[in-house]
Amino acid sequence: LLGNAANACVLEVNTPGLLLRFNTATVIVLSGADLSAELQRADGLCAASPYQVSPYVVTRVAAGDTLCFRRFVQRGMRGYLAVLGGFWAPPPSIAGSYSCVPREGLGGHRGDGQALQRDDRLYLAAPERSYDLPYLQALPYRLRPNLSNLQPICLELRLGYQAHYFDQAALAQLLQQSYRLSAQSDRMAYRLQPSQPIALPAALQQGIVSEPIALGALQITPDGEPIIMLQDRQTIGGYVKVGVIVAASLQPLVQAMPGQTLRLQLAQ
What we know:
β15 and β16 form a beta hairpin. The protein starts with 10 loop residues before the first strand and ends with a strand. It is mainly beta. Helices cover 6% and strands 31% of the residues.
């Protein structure tokens, strides 16, 4: 919607209380979770009733405007704020990225991988860039993700070469029950809480030889809990992998709230 480069830096928001004051005019777009964002206009025109910023809609902001995220997300888990040209940070990027990795202390606006703090200042990569209104001012509704914190999420699973370790009863147990997303979930992996632990063969109770892990790999722990490996996963691991969650299912998965219901089905 903004015509930014594919690797332009955006800001991720998943908690209320964030207030951003713009010191220069620009154009923004929100995407992902519904953050109930409001724009307080510096000219005072919306002082009584702040302007509601809808996701997936191009929105102009003026110098002095304040963008407020006052409430918990209404649908989904994580929202994203893009500005014209992307954000820029004084520390040098790492491999062309400013993404934050708190565990390693890398990336971000200070170079230490940490979240924003009060009075931090962000910079625009191209504040002087002009913006001609494009033909597309909003993403069509049919192309927007259907996020809900109430509806069960169905994840498509493609069985892998280690699925043969599980007998038919264990595979049926894996696919026929519902799961709750554990609060012990982060960018490294999402842990699913089963109503009945998955039966793991005795020979695999101590794990397998460590090997590389693909994005979306579905591991089964010795206590029978499935774990879905995500972007910040370790490079190798030793739990048996029954298969991999297909890429199309990962987007709704990472927008799921802890406690949300999930199911697994075989990919067609």
